[in-house]
Structures are given as C-alpha cells and as structure tokens.
Amino acid sequence: MPRRLLLLGGLAALAVVAHHATHWVVTGTVWWADRYQAVAVPDYTWIGTPKFLAVRLVDLLSTFAVPAFLFTSGYFISVVGGRSGRDLGWPTVLRRSLWLIIPYLVWSSILIILNSLNGQEYDVWTVARALLLGEAAPPYYYVPLAVQLFLLSVWLVPLTRFHAKAVLAVSAAVAGASLLVHYPIIAGVSTTFGRGWPISLDWWQLPLYAVWFVGGIAAQSNLPAFRRWLQPRRRWLLAGVVLTALLALVESELMRRAGGRDWLSPQATLWTNILDAFLILAFLAYEAADPPFAGQLRHLGTMSFGIYLMHVPILEVVSRGIAHVAPGLLALAGLMYFILIASGVGIPALAMIATRRSRLRPVYSFLFG
After folding, report:
1. DSSP 193
2. Dihedral angle over CA of 289, 295, 299, 302, nearest 10
3. Which long-range CB contacts under 8 A does 333-337 form with residues at least 24 apart?
4. Rounded to an integer, what is the distance from CA 162 to the centroid of its chain?
5. Is pTM, for the whole model, over 0.85?
6. Contact 27/35 with Cβ under 8 angstroms?
7. Residue 13 CA to its chain's centroid (Å)
8. For the chain, first and last CA: distance in Å?
C-alpha cells in the first residue's frame, strides 16, 4: 500500500497542475481569442461545444488532487503513530509541520515580491493574512490546512485507531454540513456574519477537508480489513467513477447556468466529493495494476510538495509566453494542457533534482520540503 500511495501522490501532482492549467486554457480560449482569430473578447462562443465539455471534464477529474494528498498524509502520519497510535509526539508533529511551513513561507514571500513588482499593493495586514491563510496564491490554502491537520493528528491518530467508524462518521457529517454552506456561496449568494465579516469559508477549510485526512488514518489503522473491503468492490468502484463524474459534470453545469456565469471551476460539492472518493478508492483497489511510467510517477510522488509550491508562477509565465510568441497554440486545448502540465511538473522536478545534486543541497529542504 505505501508504494501505491506514492504512486497516488505522483498522479495527484499531475492532477493539481492540470487543474490550475485549466485556468490558462480557458483564458486563452475566452480572453485571448483575438490573438489568433478575428473576434471580440471575451469570446463565449465555445460554451456548450465539445471542447467546452472536455475542458470541464478534465478540470472536474483533476480536483481529486487535494483529497488524495490529504488521504496520503493521513496514512503516513498514522504509520508514524505506531501500533497504539500514541508514538506520535509533539516533537515529531512540529518537525513535520516545519517541513511544510518553511518552504511555504519562502515561496509565498517570492510570490508576494513578484506581485508587488507587478503593481499589487500590500500592507502589513495583507502580507500577514496572505502568509497565515495561504493567500499568496490560490492553491496555497492547502499548506495551512495540512499544518492544522498535522497538529491535530496527535489526538486524531490514537482516536481513529480505535474508533475509526465513529471518527469517520463525525468528520463526514462535518464535511456535509460545510458543503451545505458552500452551495449558496458557489451560487453567488453573499452572506455576512457579525459586523460584515464574510463567511466564505475560504479562510478555514478544515471542516470540509478533514475527512480525507481521517480516511487515510483509518485505512492504515485497519489495513487488512480495508484491503479485504476494497478487493471485491473494484469493478463497482470503477463504475462509480464513471457515474459520479457524469453527475458531477451535470451538477456543475446546472450551477453555472443558475448563476449566469460563463465559466465555473469545479467547487467542493456533494457530487465532486463522492467522485473524489470513488477515484481514490478505485485506484487503491487495483493495487496490482500499475499504470505506464509507474516508477517515474512514484518519484514524482516524493517531489509533489515542491511541484505544488512552484507550479503556479510557471504556468503563468509559460501561458503568457505562448500568447506572445505562438498565439495559435491557444486555440488547441489539448496541446496547451500538454505544454502546461509538462512545464508545471517538469520545471519544478528538474529544479529539485539540480538543487539536490549541486552545492545548494543543504538548502533543499528549506526550498522544497
């Protein structure tokens, strides 16, 4: 199972880059369309076309990345907890948290500096909020979330070890309640609390995502039973992926139309969460079936955090470069995905390998974890 989880981590690294590459594929199709054809922008004529649906489906399927990262983190932190779950002390938890925090602060600071050079204004409160809540870049919310879960793992691991079903049920119920709050937010309903403080839940994702971390702990704590449960259900789980992908696609399209929007990236909803669960479980159920380049994907799994931190500015630079140098490529969604994913994964991976093999090796952990 650990090798399978490393493989899952590698696939999740590809998925998270694909998910954020979608933003630039859509930008090239809608907002930069005048660079390669005679149209007025924004150009919404692609809505409802096969290309539109294909991009939505890629974006939808790639959202399993963060749940997969959290499930894997929960599994491995449970291993550290030992047979009783009580071997996980504060020194270990703090050390693993710092492994995330230091590179995160480095790359967040770099992005804040770059944004400042591009004209974005920051004050002390804005910088503090960006660093504390993961707002230097949209995907960075994951790091404060993961740190919170690592800190809670001192209690979560032993509790889940002996009461897995109860803890899973509670965390799933909390996630369900959070989803209910998210639905009106996705639909564009503005809600406030107290003195106008926005309840967007963007600043506290823990209730929504803790269930994946708990699921990883529960799987490792009851590994033989978990495997016995998975194996006879492999085909049903695979069928569940197909069915829930279609249902999640329909749901997202209905929500997009209800809100009068031209594009709506997949949000955390009931059907996307069920789809993510089916994807992870189906992948683990076919433990003996390795995809092509499994060894390379496992290696990517060990570098997934560095890829996560670095890929955001790389995707922007590559996309803007294509728009200026070869704008005709913007019309080719499949080729754009290939270029962006190859750049978003390959450049960070090469940077990490080069750092590890150079005189900069002592600072590797400070940069990439």
Report:
1. E
2. 30
3. 333/25, 333/29, 333/51, 333/54, 333/55, 336/21, 336/24, 336/25, 336/28, 337/18, 337/21, 337/25, 337/58
4. 29
5. yes
6. no
7. 8
8. 23
Q: Which long-range contacts (CB under 8 A, 24 or more apart) does 138-141 make?
A: 138/20, 138/312, 139/16, 139/20, 139/308, 139/312, 140/104, 140/108, 140/309, 141/202, 141/205
| Nearest-angstrom CA–CA distance, 256 and 271 | 15
For 25, the token pair is: 């594929």
Q: Which of 286, 273, 285 is nearest to 245 (CA)?
A: 273
Q: In a structure prediction context, what are the per-residue pLDDT tens digits for the chain, which is 369 residues long?
A: 678 899 999 999 999 999 999 999 999 999 999 999 988 888 888 988 999 999 999 999 999 999 999 999 999 999 988 776 677 788 889 988 999 999 999 999 999 998 888 878 888 888 888 898 888 888 899 999 999 999 999 999 999 988 999 999 999 999 988 888 777 666 655 444 333 444 444 457 898 999 999 999 999 998 999 999 998 999 999 999 999 999 999 988 888 777 777 777 767 788 899 999 999 999 999 988 888 888 889 999 999 999 999 999 999 999 999 999 999 999 999 999 999 999 999 999 999 999 999 999 999 999 998
Interacting residues of 295 by C-beta distance below 8 A, sequence separation 6+: none
Helix pair angle (90-117, 124-133), 10° resolution: 130
- Tokens representing 213 are 């971390």
Q: Are strands 197-198 and 192-193 parallel, antiparallel or unpaired?
A: antiparallel
Give dist(CA 263, CA 60) in Å, integer: 13
Distance CA 161, CA 167 (A): 9
